[in-house]
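Sequence and structure are no longer studied apart. As an example, we show below a sequence and the tokens encoding its fold:
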Amino acid sequence: MLGKIALEECWTIPQALAKNDPGKFVATGTGDRLTRELLDIHDMRIRQMDENGVDFMVLSFVSAGCQGISDPATAEALATLANDKLEEEVMKNPTRFAAFAAVSMHDPGQAAEELTRCITKKKGFVGVLLNDFQSSGPDGNTMLFFDQPEYGPFWKAANDLKAPVYLHPRISSSLIHDQMWKGRPWLDFSALGYADRLNMHILGIITNGVLDRFPDVKLIFGHMGEHIPYDIYRIDHKLDRARFPKMPMRKDKLVQDYFGDQVFITTSGHFSTPALICAMGEIGAQSIMFSIDYPFESIPNACAWWDEHVSVNQHDLVNMGRNNVLKVLPRLTEKPHNLKTMTPAECQVGGLREGQVTYGMYNEDWSRRLVKR
């Protein structure tokens, strides 16, 4: 499929590498490659995009970013530096790149100000990305969660600016790591811990009524929904209003009802067709968008899966691969990006290619795929 748009694509600056070595998150011996790919935007990254039908990427500051810094002033300064640098890089090629802003979440008012600065004073920003909870306190073990009332100023800014909020996982605090994961450290990261921590935070935001108070807020999260689509029946089944009468979420809604309106997922780092089909069944294709998770995941692997192994109708494939993004992030359709929706034919999905012949109801390529399967 041509014209794909990817949303959970990481980038960093040299100043951040000194505080957070990305090599500890990948296989031994591959840290140097990862560092090069995180720092690069216009060379290896765009070459792989061109080779794999990726038209556009929305870039974001690598996890844990500002959320991993427990000192407020340092976190705020890093956000400003990262945003200024990312805008500079995006504007070198705005028809291929946009950005999610980084913010420190120590002070909700200051976070709102930085988000407002990025959206209204700068070019290239289309939303904001938060890396789960904010580390705080003298030892970094205090965790600040954004579903609490004091974060109203931030959510109001996101609502008024119509700036979608991408929620991304991060490493655990040292205290939580020692208490929960020390005896099984391999589970603390992307295999389990990332999703299990973040889905609690996401569900906290929804059930604490944030989306009801701020109806123009849109949440996005990756990895095929951080386990939530698979569990959505049980989540709604067990949120018994008689048992939890003080739960602030609207009394006439289920968690499932927010998907496709205010809540959306991406396929980043989760290239499983059965998982995608499950998500489509539970939350609908209109709630799902393609993404990669580069450079922690491979652009060719993600695209080969999407282009060759996702067996859904061409309209859903193209909408999830491109068009849904333009509804959730409408700033991408404006200057300086000027992206447009595309038809399956424009994306080279479906139809017959020159030289193909048909066998009954299937074209030649699809017939071979059926035999192969």
User: Anything to note?
Assistant: The chain has 14 helices and twelve strands. The longest strand covers residues 4-11. The chain has one domain: 4-333. The two ends are 20 Å apart (CA to CA).
